[in-house]
Amino acid sequence: MTAVRPPRTPLVGDFVRLDPLLKTDVPDLFTAIGHPLVFSGGFGGGPEGYPDNLADFTAFADSYFAWERSNVHAVRLVGGENDGLLVGTSTLGDFDLDLEHAHIGWTAYDPRVWGTAVNAEAKLLLLGAAFDNGFGRVKLQADVLNERSRAAISKIGAQFEGIVRRDRRRADGTWRDSAIFSVVVDEWPAVRAGLESRLAAYGAEPVRLRAAPDGG
């Protein structure tokens, strides 16, 4: 099957819905992820890249997300008292149709949904969109120093490929090494089953917001 770019349409699960992120969503996205704790792990170039007001965050979002070249998503809750609440963002991009490669990244969530079903289902939906549209390899990566993100990527079943050294600059000017993971199409049935099993363990209750971790 030849890879084609997935359509920019909503991806709907039991706990979250991934809608195309719009410029008009940026204020709500700032409310969700505009916290030092989110940037401390490496999102947006790391702590020095943290924009502490809406104007700076809007400028950051304009340059950070590949709005036209990628499928940039708003992650919203489904069901319950917070139905429709924007709680994060994730992108499927870096499309190479000839090599059938894609990349899931540019991901950040409101700390109040960390440790819930949100990330697992968002990854299930994004991986499904990639493989359903003919891609054979999906890359995921994290700053080598971001142990939390690396553990989350491993937990979904992605295979660790290695470290790309001096990969890109952080916002403070230091050089980041990137930990590279991937899921290939032959592994997708097992990865999908693992994610579905994790999600089943949450039952039928909608995601509830938690207290932000210390530092949030």
Q: What would you say this structure looks like, in words?
A:
There is one protein chain. The mean pLDDT is 96. The protein has an eight-stranded mixed beta sheet. The protein is an alpha+beta fold and 216 residues long. The chain has helices spanning 26-33, 36-39, 54-64, 118-132, 147-155, 188-200, and strands spanning 11-12, 16-20, 71-77, 86-96, 101-109, 137-143, 159-169, 175-184.
Quick overview:
The chain has 216 residues and is of the alpha+beta class. The chain has helices at residues 26-33, 36-39, 54-64, 118-132, 147-155, 188-200; strands at residues 11-12, 16-20, 71-77, 86-96, 101-109, 137-143, 159-169, 175-184. The protein is built from six helices and eight strands; from the N terminus they run E-E-H-H-H-E-E-E-H-E-H-E-E-H.
Question: What are the main properties of this structure?
Answer:
single chain, 216 residues, alpha+beta, 8-stranded mixed β-sheet, 29% strand
Secondary structure layout:
Elements: E1 11-12, E2 16-20, H1 26-33, H2 36-39, H3 54-64, E3 71-77, E4 86-96, E5 101-109, H4 118-132, E6 137-143, H5 147-155, E7 159-169, E8 175-184, H6 188-200
Parallel strand pairs: 5-6
Antiparallel strand pairs: 1-2, 2-3, 3-4, 4-5, 6-8, 7-8
Helix pairs in contact: 4-6
The gross shape turns out to be globular
User: Which range does the strand content fall in?
Assistant: 25-35%
- End-to-end span in angstroms? 45 Å
Largest sheet: 8 strands, mixed
